[in-house]
Amino acid sequence: MSVMEDDRVNLTEAQKKARRNRSIALAVALVGFVVIMYFVTIIKLGPSILDRPM
Amino acid sequence: MALVEKNGYDDAAFRVSEAQAGDYLALLKPRVMSLVVFTAFVGLVSAQAPVNPFIAVVSILAIAVGAGASGALNMWYDADIDAVMSRTANRPVPSGRVLPGEALVFGLILSAFSVMMLGLVANWLAASLLAFTIFFYAVVYTMWLKRWTPQNIVIGGAAGAFPPMIGWAAVTGHIGLESVIQFLIIFLWTPPHFWALALFKSGDYGRAGIPMMPNVAGEASTKRQIFAYAVLVAAVGVLPSVLGQASVSFGVFAAALGAGFVWYSWKVLRMPEEDRVMRPAKALFGYSLLYLFAIFAALLLDAVAARAGIAVW
Fold first, then answer.
1. Which residues contact B193 (CB under 8 A, 6 or more apart)?
2. Which residue among B140, B173, B206 closes a domain?
């Protein structure tokens, strides 16, 4: 066994479960944010979102 | 000899977190948040200004997240006193599920995020009011007033009173008299609500060293002040109707609710000094929650009827 491996933190089952739970919640929040910003952009800018003069 | 002598890492800082998403949600004080969402929604609807429903929903969401963020900052700062009070000992930070630093960063990020979101989605007046509310609750109330003066919840109550004004400003872009009255209803409601709680939880607050009114001015003085504020709330409650902003039916309903508030406060005023069960104080605490919900629900109904063009007497 190398020294490097000894330095690693081995997560317990409870810690892994908690991390997974937090990751899922974060993913849901981020997807929700993207969806919200998509619709807000469409509503606030409307058709002018396609209006891009060169 | 090592260049760095100090290598004793702080255990807490290097601990791997076992916090669940639910613990972070608890940092947002969901129950307080629900009241914020409701009153902000009433402010928004009663403004009678045209607004895209999706924009309205996102504005309310931003206000809710901002309120939650200030709750997280409050729990970060107050972890020491939360740990010694039975009502709050199981909160995420004092119970050790969330580290203080995590709560602080979570609160700061959500604060900035919610204010920017409201500014971009609604307008910058509403966003400024939200930023001020977060600052007022987290800094003025939590860090300064709460541990210093028995007037803590009187002045700090302003933080809880802002949401309808923010909701109103989000759709109108200004602060109307109607929203100031909604602010006043919550502002004047806060002292009797919390002092009723403080009466039957005075031991808790005393242990934590928080100068609540019953611990500082005594129970008799607190009861008198509760009664005075109850009379003021009852009077302000009918103002929307008197000023022609709401229907006469609303005025009658608000007067009845207000009379109930005064009645329950009167029972507290008459409560004997040796009564340690304090049933009247508990009843007032319960009624005060019902009062706030009912009066804002009535304002909402009135506003919805007006929007729908239904004539309400």
1. B285, B288, B289, B292
2. B173
